[in-house]
């Protein structure tokens, strides 16, 4: 499947939609784990 993993993510703490470039939530400051890539 050719879907982009780097599109839209959600903060695990406050569920805010964050961009894939963000390493921390701009709203609550929680660290956002990058999606695990599987081959």
UniProtKB/TrEMBL annotation:
This is Ribosomal protein S27AE. It comes from the Archaea. Keywords: Ribonucleoprotein, Ribosomal protein. One of its GO terms (cellular component) is ribosome. The lineage of its organism: Archaea, Methanobacteriati, Methanobacteriota, Stenosarchaea group, Halobacteria.
């Amino acid at each position: 499947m050719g879907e982009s993993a780097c599109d839209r993510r959600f903060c695990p703490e406050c569920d805010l939609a964050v961009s894939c470039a963000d390493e921390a939530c701009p709203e609550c400051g929680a660290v956002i784990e990058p999606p695990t890539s599987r081959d």
